[in-house]
Design goal:
The complex is a heterodimer of chains A (265) and B (296). Chain A is α/β, with parallel strands linked by helices. Chain A contains eleven helices and ten strands. A six-stranded mixed beta sheet of chain A has the order 6-7-8-3-9-10, with helices on both faces. A four-stranded antiparallel beta sheet of chain A has the order 2-1-4-5, covered by helices on one side. In chain A, helix 3 packs parallel to helix 6. Chain B is mostly helical. Chain B has one domain. Chain B has eleven helices and two strands, in the order ααααββααααααα. In chain B, strands 1-2 form a two-stranded antiparallel sheet. The longest helix of chain B is centred in the N-terminal third of the chain and has 31 residues. The chains are: A alpha/beta (265), B mainly alpha (296). Chains A and B meet through helix 2 and helix 3 of A and helix 6 and helix 7 of B.
Chain lengths: 265, 296
Amino acid sequence: MLTVDDLHVTYGGAVQALRGISLQVPDGEVVAVLGSNGAGKTTLLRAISGTLRLQSGRIESGSVRFDGNDLRARDPAQSVRMGLVQVPEGRRIFGRLTVEENLRAGGMGSRDKAAKARAQDRVYDLFPVLRERSSQRGALLSGGEQQMLAIGRALMASPKLLLLDEPSLGLAPRIIGQIGEVIAEINRQGTSVLLVEQNATMALGVADLAYVLDVGEVSLSGKARELAQTDEVQRLYLGHDGEGSGDGAPRTRAASGRKLSRWTP
Amino acid sequence: MTQFLSLLLNGISLGAIYALIALGFVVIFKASEVVSFTQGSLLLLGAYCIARLSDPLGFYLAAAVGIAITALAAFVIERLIINRLRGAPVISLAIVTIGVDIILLTELVRRIGSDILNVPHPWGGGSVRIGDVGISENRLIAIIVAGLLIALFFLAFKFSSWGVAMRASAEDGETAALMGIRLGRVSALAWVVAGILTGVAALFLVGSPTPGVSPTAYSVALRAFPAAILGGLDSTGGALVGGLLIGMAESFAAGYQDDLLFLGRGFGDVVPYIVMIAVLLVRPSGLFGTRELTRV
């Protein structure tokens, strides 16, 4: 169980990215975090995975605990060993390494060879296309395949909690649907998931619980299904037709100018 | 023709030694994003230790200890200085390594003084003839050992976990860290590997036909730098090709200098730099380098 309590994060000692966020990811559940650009979603994941320091960010106050262990003083390698693995935004696969080497890199955090072999079988079962392409360079995969590789690479560390940062970014709707199914399957196999997304349709479809972030604060939270029915989420994240679609949504957002809009905190 | 083949063989042997040093440059650059100018003094340190320890320890043990000391020195530099400056601009790091290099070099030059220390290679100063072509035994052994070591390096780089971790963190350090790869450890190991390669290069460089350990050995490491640059600073294969190219160019320029008298004597010493400039004018990122070296 991951518990974030009243978390404040600043970058460079000046920019406040998170202003007192609290959330929980219970074991075995999928929790979605929604929010527009700049809401603090990625910062939240960095604070959990221990990579804030690489971006000169700092936890000012509050706590992040995983299974009772304080995560604030840990480096990413320790977090991985505890079972917390992040799939970074934009996939960030190693393009010059082969698919198989990417997976090997994903398993570097642990020394348990048997566990890694099991994890690799599991990844190839989840994503048969990766097995077919195991000796190809990562850069040659399509966007969807790269996202699958990024998720597979994280699964190599046999995580208890998988942190996903916008897995739908830049992918076609059909592929996004597949990613959603994969997340549900990974969860069925016993891994908790914290899913950070802008694509609310997909995220609320697979999540049990959801939080909406707005300029560094939690503005809404609750069961994913109930949240999807609320006016604000409908209007801001699902658009009129239930799909976060094209040009219509931003215009509505700008025109509404209400408390959840991006420009007026 | 005989002269040509002889110069070619000598060029390859010199090039193999340059390639060892250049590989060190490249490995350090890939793992730590540092253009390390410490290789010159590390080379001299290795040579000095091997020469001084040969008397009490015997040649083979002295060689092993000398190479180990070079690797240890590289490790200490990484831990004490480079690792603490992680994230500093590339230029500052390069200047820092120049500073370290000068400190180490000054101390070594003081210790060596005006002596020329000899390394008593068991294979001595003799030479072998292959057909009509002659080469010093030392250089022949250098080709064989460097060849084996370079092959071992490339195998490890391609297949070992260290190699995968190293290439992953060179490509995207932050993501590699997310996978649980410890960047500090990868970097430290790269310096150790570079130290070993440099130590082995030192072992052969101070034997025949070079006259023992003297501060001039330092300038040899500097010539490995153009080798790394012209191969492409982030390409291990480039370091090998660059090293051989520089070695052969130097050997030919020195061998045919009577025909090149209009350029003056001692032209061989500057040839590496001329080759480097010529290559970079055509291919600014080296023969095999990645075009864009800065990370976003």
